[in-house]
Amino acid sequence: MDIENSLRFSRLLDFYGNLLTAKQRKVATMFFNDDISLSEIAGFDGLTRQAVYDIIKRVKTILEQYENKLGLYGKYIESKKFLTKKLDADCLSHFTNIWEN
After folding, report:
1. Which of 9, 25, 31, 79 could form a disulfide with 20 if both were Cys (CB 3.0 to 4.6 A apart)?
2. What does pTM read for this prediction?
3. CATH no. of 1-70
């Protein structure tokens, strides 16, 4: 997985991690945030490498589904773009519309 993709899933985990099971959240945090390999995670939790892979694959699907339905990360990115610019009346209006839709 490339760095941009890994960073994206790390951010999605920040937004939606509490909606995962405790085991999914723990494994995903180690994989995406702590950059721990599948084999190392398996060793920590007494799982097989394949089980850890399956959990990560499922978590990625779940996080994508949450983002597709709720769009919080997308709104965050869009909001961040506007906050880095000088907020004039038009930008402020657009910023407000992002969160109202």
Report:
1. 25
2. 0.79
3. 1.10.10.10
